[in-house]
Specification:
Number of helices: 10
Largest sheet: 5 strands, mixed
CATH topology of the largest domain: Nonspecific Lipid-transfer Protein, Chain A
Structural class: alpha+beta
Order of helices and strands: HHHHEEHHHEEEEHHEH
CATH superfamily of the largest domain: SCP2 sterol-binding domain
Number of domains: 2
Strand order of the largest sheet: 5-4-3-6-7
CATH architecture of the largest domain: 2-Layer Sandwich
Shape: globular
Distance between the termini: 34 Å
Amino acid sequence: MTRSYEQTCRIARALDVLGERWTLLIVRELALGPRRYGDLLADLPGMGTSLLAARLRHLERYDVVRRTVLPGPGRAAGYELGARGTALTPLLASLVEWGGGLAPPPPGSFDRAAWTMLAMRLTAPGEAVDFDTVTEIAVDGETLWLQGDGERVRLETGPAPVKPGLRLTSGRATFQALATGGVTVDDAMASGELAVQGDADRARLFFDLFSLTNPSPAHGH
């Protein structure tokens, strides 16, 4: 049972919903698009199935998450962010920026390129919504896709639903270096550590817009 602070303070009331361990990480995963229950469990190592089920039920009550039917063969059941969950985007962006000032995690910590790409999207400047090239990112077996539509930047796990106009392939260390300005697109391409299918200028623009070195944006995209 979720504990309550039993305070009228709005911060305390928000923490009654979001403050339990793992809760915001579930929101993080669903910020990457609708997911099957099994995929959520696999990408939250250390969280047991009973706890995940309990957290999802709790978040459903507040429309932070909701059940959905996923597209594709079989139309499998899954979860996505509800309206109250989508409204947490500015909070996630602030946590990305705040967490970036902490010491690096210890070696061997669980890592996913999806988390880096989500941080890149959350902290991108407002003009990133106009990056309308369907872009597929492949990093050490992980695949994601991204596209701006003029109002928001859509980022989801898995292959792009249409033929991408730009495809970026690299290893995890190279992708992290590109995201943080540790290497340029041209140098990564020249060394063979980054493969670009599509317009190289769009690849340069992609890493300019979605760089983790950008100043704090106006959140919400």
